[in-house]
Amino acid sequence: MTQDEAKRMAARRALEFVEDGMVLGLGSGTTSAIFIQELGERVKQGLKVRGIATSAASHELAKSLSISLTTFEEVSELDLAIDGADEVGPGLALIKGGGGALLREKIVESVARRFIVVADSSKLVATLGRFPLPVEVVQMALPIVTRKLEALNLNPKLRHHPDGSLYVTDEGNVLLDCVCGAIPDPAKTAADIRAIVGVVEHGLFLKMASLALIAGEDGVREVLP
Ligand code: 5RP
User: Fold this and answer.
1) CA 197–ligand 1 middle distance (angstroms)
2) pTM of the predicted model, to two decimals?
3) Which residue in 42, 93, 126, 148 is deepest, having the highest Cβ count within 10 Å?
4) Cα 96 to middle of ligand 1, angstroms
5) CB-based contacts of 217: which residues, under 8 Å, 6+ apart?
6) Structural domains of the chain ordered from first start
7) What residue's CA is closest to ligand 1, atom 1?
8) What distance in Å separates the CA atoms of residue 195 and residue 217, rounded to the nearest whole number?
9) Are the C-beta atoms of 7 and 215 separated by less than 8 Å?
10) Residue from 5, 19, 105, 109 carrying the catalytic annotation
11) Spacing, Cα 196 to ligand 1 middle (Å)
């Protein structure tokens, strides 16, 4: 099975949790994009849902598939959010933000009654940290935040696009990817990073996911926190 096939299996399984009338959080990244495409098919067949997207890209994709979109002017809570992850660790502690959308993802998922992660089995890890931990930073604070992350031995690297241009998030901030290796105590690392003024958000999603649908050779496994 290819990684893309596994992603599709997880995304399809997630559709089984969607009910008519729900307000959904729509994630970002390739697995979420497959979910949104599959959701679009269901909408064509008559399913009525509204969504709030976690990135401009997911918003545009949902719009192109005629999925109704709403805003936090209209809703305060979501029934269900579906999103991918870069790493899924014990207790469903996650690293997210590989696609640069961690800020909106965390906002949307923080108000979802249920947050389901969709991923292929390569994302499951015993300890978080093999994947660089993204930290979103206000541009003018970049030098001081960089020094403070260095002092925490988190080894921050400024994110660029493959063409060398600076990566700027949907909210106009920049990203420092912390190539820090194993994160033995994610709650402490999250608190240390959050204490730095100029940090907007970080990619550790702790105690947020309710379920992970992890697809691999043996099918889709349901993993609880
Ligand atoms: C984007 C994310 C994505 O959910 C994460 O990068 C996983 O992406 P993919 O499904 O493409 O592997 O956090 O900010």
Assistant:
1) 26
2) 0.97
3) 93
4) 6
5) 1, 121
6) 3-124+206-223 (3.40.50.1360), 133-200 (3.30.70.260)
7) 99
8) 41
9) yes
10) 105
11) 25
